[in-house]
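== Folding task for one protein ==

=== Format: two labelled lines per protein ===

==== Paired sequence and structure tokens ====
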Amino acid sequence: MATHKVTFLPLNVTVEVDESKYPLADHGKPGSLLDIALANNIKLEHNCGGSCACTTCHVVVREGEENLSTMELDEEDRLDTAEGLTLHSRLGCQAVVRGDVVVEIPK
């Protein structure tokens, strides 16, 4: 059982999660950034309910990108339509946390 630290910017809130307890909030993939955010009362939009059908849970990974699940084709296709897309963008509902990460929630 591993625990990971996830920091959400610009809130500068860090939460510690135990991956043996995934899913945490029943939105997005179990252990996703969205799942973790909602379980810890961190506001992360998710108009589609976390099913990779919109881009409202778009985040930018600032540190620990290697500690997230590999991006699948569905997420990559959907991200192409995200406002403010960067090389380090991910969808919160699809990126599963497997180590410490720092992500920014765009305004």
Notes: The two ends are 34 Å apart (CA to CA).
